[in-house]
Amino acid sequence: MDKTGKRKAFNTIKDHEDIKFRRKIFISKCVRKAMSLFRIITLIGISYIVLSPMISIISRAFFSESDVYNAMVYLIPQNGTLKNFKLSILRMNYWKTLGYSLLYIGTLTILQLFVCSTVGYGFARFEFPFKKLLFGCVILTIVIPSYTIMLPLYIHFRNFDPLHLSSLLGIGAQNWLTTVKPIYLMTILGCGLRSGLFIYIFIQFFRGIPKELEEAAFVDGAGAFRTFFTIMLPNAVPSIITVTVFSLVWQYNDSFYSGLFGIKSDYLISVKLASLTGTINSLDQIINPELQQAYLDAGIVLMVVPSVIIYILLQRKFVEGVERSGIVG
Q1: pLDDT one-digit tens code per residue, 31-60
Q2: In angstroms, how far apart are the furthest CA atoms of the chain?
Q3: C-alpha 226: how far from chain center
Q4: Is residue 70 part of a domain?
Q5: Does the residue 69 lie in any domain?
């Protein structure tokens, strides 16, 4: 074969390899674009599933009576009104109840922060008898559903007599139902709402802090409590922010303990919201279920707003705290 033929054959092979290479690049680009499109569609679908109920609630909260009876109105009200919000604020005694709720929830959150951080530090740094057993009990409070201990809790606080001391003193068992005493006591003793999870978060965070910091404090003459308050807590700000947000939101939305102990509606806005439909029905003689739902949706929006404000104010610190606390899922 002469040089011209060899050159042509070489060029043919080169062109063929070039075509194959371009084809691979094209297929790779198509696959990447298809995967990107699939991710976008999936995210849009998940976002719709998650946000659709809330969008529907916000929309119906502005429905006027004519919009409720108009079958053609679905999401966008034709005659939007704030009447639903005004009536819901009036019947829920919104501002007074919100003030009581924030005071009650803020107190519980501060107690949970102090108790859970102290217990978490003890588990993370000290050795003491039955440590593994007690840590297992903490894990059990996370794993076991609260509904399984409803009856014992109810009976215990219905006839509250710890170690029969009240009977020995001649006071007799006390009924703590319809009060906030049971929740305060459980929180102080480290078994309040989600306290087990908060203790675990603090344990994991304190374990990640170098022991050299504590050793240096001990050399300077600092005791365990001084080291905890001056060294450990300032370094635990991310976990504190995380627990604060979780505690505020979960206490604010709690319906389990408030319903179990029959807490008065003045203390929790969630209890007021649960009775809003009945209140409007009895006082305003509104018996149409769809119109009642519009007022209830307005109440839901009013209840959600404080949680959203808390998250917006603490968003950056909360995200950083979640990342540094090792919370996943």
Answers
A1: 899 999 999 999 999 988 888 888 889 998
A2: 120
A3: 32
A4: no
A5: no
Calculate the alpha carbon distances from 103 to 50, 244, 248 in Å.
31, 14, 11
The first and second tokens of residue 47, run together, are: 């976002």
CATH of the domain at 279: 1.10.3720.10
Question: CA–CA separation, 266 vs 247, rounded Å?
Answer: 20
Separation between Cα atoms, residue 204 and residue 323, nearest integer Å: 12
Tell me: do 54 and 92 sit in the same domain. no
Which residues span the domain enclosing 44?
3-61
Contact 262/182 with Cβ under 8 angstroms?
no
- For residue 188, count other CB atoms closer than 10 A to its CB: 14
For residues 148 and 260, what is the distance between their CA atoms, to the nearest angstrom?
Answer: 12
39 with 140, same domain: the answer is no
**pLDDT per position as a tens digit, 192-209:** 889 999 999 999 889 888
Higher pLDDT: 325 or 298? It is 298
Give the number of residues written for the chain.
329
